[in-house]
Predict the structure.
Amino acid sequence: MLIRRWALRRGFVDQPGGHHTTHTEPIALGGGIVIFWITILPIAIVAALAWWWQAHGIPGFLPQTLAIHIPGLASRTELALTLVAAAGLLHVMGLMDDKRHLGPKLKLVLQFTAAILLAGVGGVRFDFFILNVWLTTILSVLWIVVIINAFNFLDNMDGLSAGVAVICAAMILGAAWNSGQVFVCGLLIILIGTLCGFLVFNFAPAKIFMGDAGSLLVGLLLATATIRTTYYQQNSSEAAWYNTLMPLIVLAVPLYDFLSVTTLRLLQGKSPFIGDKQHFSHRLVSRGMTRRQAVLTIYLATACTGLGATVLHQLSSTAVILVFVQTLLILLIIAILEHPGKV
């Protein structure tokens, strides 16, 4: 891999012995560079072409099955360009942090800047709440920042953050596909393909890491997809408001890790943004699992909660409650498995 060789030559590596690392030799960083360009460049190109063709005429060589989507894609130009700008901001910040370790306050400020740019300018806001635009914007900004950090926190073991992101993106893709949302589907398909290719080199034993330059971007893209996806049929006679809670179930495991680690650090008087080895994956390893077993366990737990979420739109309110209970039980099993106490 060209990026890996470049990173090793330039010393752009993650050194062993850190407070949250588990590897024993320097591992190349720079995987985030690949993830950024492979996901963001197609979005920018498609948005620019759709805008141009809508303004100057759709070329005749385009198949009709594609041409009918040009007006819809063109209407998403502002969203696409805002997403590119926000992603670029987080990517550059991530590269700098991977090299120099920026302080948590600056990182949080820039994360909120990217989220406000998306929600305020790009219109990436929840639209299924009967609230005014200010409240939905605030709620959306907080959600984006939480998901960004959830996947940044998950990037603590070989293949973990990328693999969980693939599973979550696949679940959200199902809902977006059912709703006929071309932009969101395209975004998720590109993201899934990119991360699957990256996992070939990142799964244990990893040859390259995505670093903050990649994990922050992955969180941003997934947060955007969860907000922009429609989870219910507008013309349905069913009172299906609970379908909009699908992202909470799909992302239950990443959110569990984020909230549990943040709570532990705060109770210990530590900054929640200073890395350590108290993550879900680390606690499973401390219970006797290998790193691969821990990662695969988290994959399976994510898939279990996510599969229940994919059928919410087909269920009665009683069945939905059972899916929520099932999700809580899975998280409880996780808590028991990782509990550090003696058996």
Summary: The chain has a mean pLDDT of 85.
